[in-house]
Amino acid sequence: MPDTIKYVLSEDQMPKFWYNIAADLPSPPPAPLHPGTGQPISPSDLGAIFPAPIIEQEMSMEREIEIPTEIRNIYRQWRPSPLYRARRLEKALDTPAKIYYKYEGVSPAGSHKTNSAFPQAFYNKISGIKRLVTETGAGQWGSSLSMAAEAFGLECLVYMVKVSFSQKPYRRALMETFGAKVIASPSETTACGREILATSPDSSGSLGMAISEAVEVAAHDPEASYCLGSVLNHVLLHQTIIGLEAKMQLELAGAAPDILIGCTGGGSNFAGLVFPFLKEKLRGGGGPRVIAVEPKACPSLTKGLYAYDYGDVSKLTPLVKMNTLGSGFVPPGFHAGGLRYHGMAPLVSQVLQHGAIEATSVDQLEVFQSAVQFAHAECIVPAPESSHAVAIAIHEANLCKQSGETKNIVFNLSGHGHFDMQAYMDYFAGKLVNYAYPEQEIAMALSSLPSV
Amino acid sequence: MPDTIKYVLSEDQMPKFWYNIAADLPSPPPAPLHPGTGQPISPSDLGAIFPAPIIEQEMSMEREIEIPTEIRNIYRQWRPSPLYRARRLEKALDTPAKIYYKYEGVSPAGSHKTNSAFPQAFYNKISGIKRLVTETGAGQWGSSLSMAAEAFGLECLVYMVKVSFSQKPYRRALMETFGAKVIASPSETTACGREILATSPDSSGSLGMAISEAVEVAAHDPEASYCLGSVLNHVLLHQTIIGLEAKMQLELAGAAPDILIGCTGGGSNFAGLVFPFLKEKLRGGGGPRVIAVEPKACPSLTKGLYAYDYGDVSKLTPLVKMNTLGSGFVPPGFHAGGLRYHGMAPLVSQVLQHGAIEATSVDQLEVFQSAVQFAHAECIVPAPESSHAVAIAIHEANLCKQSGETKNIVFNLSGHGHFDMQAYMDYFAGKLVNYAYPEQEIAMALSSLPSV
Question: In chain B, what residues touch A368 (CB-CB under 8 Å)?
């Protein structure tokens, strides 16, 4: 059996700054627009739902933003996270490619989401906020924020997409273990939830709906803040610690990456890994191929439009320019709840526009087949979301086998699948299907994009 | 919030030898006896179910046994495992004690069990064995052996205690993900299973029954070996890497341990942590207090007899001298399936006889209360088994608060609870109870101890 190779950094080597890609974009990020007026928002417009330090990060054009000592001390529980060379997978594929993966499943919640949950809780705490309101799809974000809120003595209210709420009772139990209150969305607890239920009483929910409910609650409670686990600039910023570490680890390995891969739902784990590698490409220079992988059933990057749209169903959020399938689009209930979002991080959408990254999509069955293949070789059961990246890493490694090329393929294994075993059971039982590209639903949702 | 402190070893510092406590016992370990003749067994008697390298380790009196390079290469995926100082828990308890925990949940199966699963699979592979047969209670061992078997290209058959099979479908799914065949025990697939079902058709199973079934299958298949996840000398040997690492990490921390704590079911994680610290105590010298923690509902160390007994219900295994509640004792179905065993590792039982360790027991509700308290402070949800150790660590830290003593308390957090969320849900819903000490059942089982 080939040796396991793990590239480890010492705590001293853990980055002291996050990387803000906004400083390196060829053109400034398009301004978010006020949902009422359609005019560019000011920091104070965001004050109703975010504390000042978060708003400052959201709008910052500084290239490097210091990670507070308090957060570095918390990060040290699981960071620097390991970078592995998947030697056993390479052997199983009989490929000349070298496959590396950054493993974020070592975090206490089992995914990269803690990288942003703790900073968000921290900034809210020092701003005098008492409770955090959020939404969660797969539950990775909700459990991360629950832990972080508990750690800083804050209350936490989580709107969990109804289909995930039913599929994943143990994710919910994990959040409750950390004292969070978890509500299936859409719910009767908010005006927008009631409105959705009035027209669609059997709605299985979506991230767009859950965001509406969470934003509504936060906006009406002066002691509460809204927290988002992806999409926004400050979230992607916090996640760049993944790529900053990976860069150092790849240098340790003596491996210049040829291909970087991450799955994309809202974009945070993808951006976290790849943004620190994009500087030269954004200046028209060279660099690795960078591939975003999304589900065929929710293909915002490969089939969506780059346009101003709302982040939520009920049109409570600012309008942001992003790749979108239309805020009214409700994806089918496939087993990667973290990727069921109609939009894409504006910064990820923009680097796609600039040609610095490419995007592709995969079917559900290929995702699970790849996940099992990876697990057999590497002894880690990946989250269904992360398995989208696994699938394309295997695909590229197979292409290397055909061409004989020794490429360095790097992907982000953003989380483990310990709370996704029902999906694996369904897969083994032959119950999972590929979803047809929801062409009509997306066309309809896109037809009602706001005109700005 | 207090800083997280993690004590990390480099891969170069990972131990190259396991520690065999048999070499340091004041008296030699009592010989196992043949179940048919009652005479001391010879290595060849064990040949029907174990390969030669395992038998050699089981009977070895060498103090240090080299860890094969192949195993060290695999260990490197998750080892050296971290030692943490639980500063946030200390603060929550407002104790002057310093609490350290060795965290084995970082392994790919989520517990210490992989430390022995991979060596066992390796030794079987190089001995020409084609399939491994085992039992599992909580599922930690079964999933570890499933991974290890898959890694070495061996088949794996797991008899899973029926109550766990029902309580933990996702543990089963994890084993199946690695290609193992999982059967609820007692089953119709073996003669001893059929015999048990004939008299107790509704039996919820026990480790003692599942062992009988696995041993029966292995004994009748020349290409199969039996594997055990605890109790036996070679298993405890493999686990000593935990304590050998912890010793170095505590030196890094500048902390001489005052109290060492581990939970005990079969004894493997406990022995793994504490055996490397016992050398002086076994010679009549000083050393830390060492506490084994067991469930009040299955109290082999605190209420059992030190006597020769069978390891299984159907009396197929050799007789070993150990603390036992009687091989016919079936513990109630509490939520720590890994601790539902009538016996205790002979080596752990012997060091208790020598006065080098002490034992205590805790109730189920205290276990879960402590587990949640730990999770809130340290952001890790512990396995119910490991939470027995957490409970006594908290108890000792509270005593330090009363006395004002600054003791160094070290415990083994042997696994995470990601596959135990049903137990947590039941706890939150108020469905868990404390089990009365099963006095009559134990008395009855002890009354039929074999006379040797």
Answer: none
| pLDDT > 80? residue A1 | no
Give one DSSP letter per residue of A254-307, joined into a string: T---SEEEEE-SSSHHHHHHHGGG-HHHHTT----EEEEEEETTS-HHHHSEEE
Take residue B158 and report the two structure tokens written for it: 């797991």
What is the helix, strand, coil percentage profile of chain B, to 5? 45, 20, 40
Q: Do B177 and A372 touch (CB under 8 A)?
A: yes
**In a mutagenesis test of the A interface, which of B177, B178, B373, B431 is the best target, namely the one with the most A β-carbons within 10 Å?**
B177
Q: Which of A108, A378, A424 sits opposite B379 (nearest CB)?
A: A108
CA pair distance A263, A344, nearest whole angstrom: 12
Whether pLDDT at A293 is above 90: yes
Is B206 a domain residue? no
Strands A98-103 and A83-85: antiparallel
Please tell me which of the candidates A73, A177, A421 has its beta carbon nearest to residue B372: A177
Mutate to test the interface with B, among A177, A387, A419 (most CBs of B within 10 A): A177
B219 in a structural domain = no
List CB contacts (< 8 A) between A109 and chain B.
Answer: 379
- Please give the Cα distance from A444 to B266 (Å, whole number): 61
Q: How far is CA B228 from the centre of its chain?
A: 10
Is A404 part of a structural domain of the chain? Answer: yes
User: What residues in chain A have their Cβ under 8 A from chain B's Cβ atoms?
Assistant: 1, 3-6, 8, 10-11, 70, 73-74, 76-77, 84, 88, 106, 108-110, 147, 150-152, 169-170, 173-174, 176-179, 372, 375-376, 378-381, 418-419, 421-422, 424-425, 428
Helix (H, G, I), strand (E, B) or coil at B84: strand
Based on the structure, what is the number of domains in chain B? 1
The tens digit of pLDDT for each residue in B162-213 reads 989 988 899 999 999 999 999 999 999 999 999 999 999 999 999 999 999 9
Please indicate, yes or no, if residue B384 is contained in any of the structural domains: yes
At position B369, the amino acid (one-letter code) is Q
CB contact at 8 A, A235 and A141:
no
Residues of B in contact with A150 (CB under 8 A): 376, 379
* CA dihedral angle for residue A385, residue A390, residue A392, residue A393, rounded to 10 degrees: 150
By three-state DSSP, how is residue B160 classified? strand
Confidence class of residue A150 from pLDDT cuts 50, 70 and 90? Answer: very high
Would you say A99 and A59 are in contact if contact means Cβ atoms under 8 Å apart?
Answer: no
Find out whether the peptide bond into B80 is cis, omega within 30 degrees of 0. yes
Task: Please name the member of B173, B421, B422 whose beta carbon is closest to the beta carbon of A425.
Answer: B173
Inter-residue contact B135 to B159 (CB < 8 Å):
yes
Tell the residue number behind the tokens 């949902």, with chain if given.
A35
In chain B, what residues touch A6 (CB-CB under 8 Å)? 11, 76-77
CB atoms within 10 A of CB A204: 20
Residue span of the structural domain in which B253 resides: 4-12+69-110+234-446
Output the six-digit token pair for A224. Answer: 């509460």
Residues of B with a Cβ under 8 Å from any A Cβ are 1, 3-6, 8, 10-11, 70, 73-74, 76-77, 84, 88, 106, 108-110, 147, 150-152, 169-170, 173-174, 176-179, 372, 375-376, 379-381, 418-419, 421-422, 424-425, 428
**What is the CATH number for A371?**
3.40.50.1100
Q: Which residues in chain B are closer than 8 Å to A76, comparing Cβ atoms? A: 3-6
- Chain A residues whose CB is inside 8 A of the B6 CB are 11, 76-77
Q: What is the pLDDT of residues A2-57, one digit of tens each?
A: 888 999 999 999 999 999 999 999 999 999 999 999 999 999 999 999 999 999 99
- Which chain B residues touch A421 with a CB distance below 8 Å? 169-170, 173-174, 177, 419
Read off the pTM.
0.96
